[in-house]
Amino acid sequence: FIMLDFFNKFIYKNGDAKYQNPTGENKHPLQQKIYDIFSRGVMMDNEDPEMIYGKAVGCIGLGDIQKALELLNDVISIAPEYAPAYLKEGECFMLMKDFESASSSFSGFIEKFEKYYQLFEDQQSLTIDSDFVLSDVLYKRGICAFHYGDYQTSLSDLQAVIDMDEHHLEMSHFWIGKTQSKLGNFWDTIDSMTEVLKLNPKFIHAFIERAE
Description:
Elements lengths: L1 H13 L14 H16 L4 H13 L3 H14 L4 H13 L3 H24 L7 H18 L3 H14 L4 H14 L3 H14 L4 H8 L1
């Protein structure tokens, strides 16, 4: 199901289905197939957390975020240690701009992910490095914390991301700069935006933030 998440993110970036499509228009046929397959699985066993989770992922791809949240809540009720459910729940709350709830879900994932990913490592079936997944969740939680005003958590999470990997390096510096600006630390904002522009000299918003 880690690969299922990765596959869905690829579709969101390259296909017709978009997270921000609550009407379900332009549904991607692969997303519909995912939904149909796992729906049948749930019909055969309505207490299988992986089947319910897969159906929730299908719902997200089809734009039914509220239904996805209901299914993810079912997963967590049945299997409280099933870490991916907390991650998807957090992403759903982010789409709804409920940043505090999203942050809480991401924290739930962080508390449980080590044990969950150790299982995959023991089976040698891990498709995505666990540190990459953790840094992605910390990045999202850092952005959520910024939006509801917990600036210290935002700084802590985003700095951790910078220390862990390079995949969110540019945007982590950018959000750190915005956070420092909220705290009145304008020289730190300038430093952060300068780091962004070293990585991407064409990032216009970094120029604007630095100038302001």
